[in-house]
Amino acid sequence: RMMDHYYNTLRDDLMYMTYLHEPGPRKPPRQIRLKYDPEDPYTKNRVNPPVGGSQVGRKPAPPTSWDNVVQLERIQIHTMVKEALSSRVNLLGPIMMLRALSGETQYGGGRHTSEGVQVVRGVKTVGGWIRPGLPVGAKVDLKGPKMYDFLGTLTEFVLPRLREFPGFVMPAPSAQHFTPSSVSGVISVGLPPEAMGLFPQIEVNLDAYPGTYGMHIHFITNAEGQGAQNKARALLSGLQVPF
């Protein structure tokens, strides 16, 4: 139902809301001077950043057209368990939770792109307690109909039953709009541990889990460039996610 709502109603509305008319072709991008001469043999292997810092946040949005209307590409659910650093057994509960929420298994349904629930391992040393290679959590990616099914469950069963939940916090009006995160088109929200027991897949068998776990939900869209965050929030608002 959520997927039909997007393709039949919401997609057209989003195109009208985010359409930006450009009367002519765009000017070619301005060439950003590098700090060192790339032809200089003395600086050939040196890191050569552009003058003025990173240009990622200044990336313009692509021209508006019917084939780049903002849409969900995938939803990633991630949970971190600090107790897993002392014993990997503590990861079994989060893995069971993510499998119940997503229904995903590796190569499930004959899909070679299905990776199932994955163990998240440390990449670098953080504060002396996270080291490279140590398991610190679990994550799972949802695509296609399962993605919309999870979104429908989240907005219809979980969020309305959260006590004292005013909605997800919007960034302040004074927030910078030229940061890499503001042009990525990814919206990240968090749920407390008590929200885990509100999912119907877990509520029917909550006693089987050794504890409750919070989670981060990353809504990954195809929006990019300046204004990508606003487009992504407009899409999620149309899909009943409260901000």
TrEMBL record:
- Domain of life, per UniProt, equals Eukaryota
Q: Name one GO biological process term.
A: translation
Do you know which InterPro entries this protein is assigned to? Ribosomal_uL5, Ribosomal_uL5_C, Ribosomal_uL5_dom_sf
Q: Where is the Large ribosomal subunit protein uL5 C-terminal domain?
A: 135-243
Any one annotated GO CC term = ribosome
Matching Gene3D superfamilies, A to Z?
A: 3.30.1440.10
Q: Where is this region: Disordered?
A: 38-65
- Keywords assigned: Ribonucleoprotein, Ribosomal protein
GO molecular-function terms, A-Z: structural constituent of ribosome
The answer to whether the entry has keyword Ribonucleoprotein is yes
What family is this? Belongs to the universal ribosomal protein uL5 family.
Q: What is this protein called?
A: Ribosomal protein L5
Lineage from the top down? Eukaryota, Fungi, Dikarya, Basidiomycota, Agaricomycotina
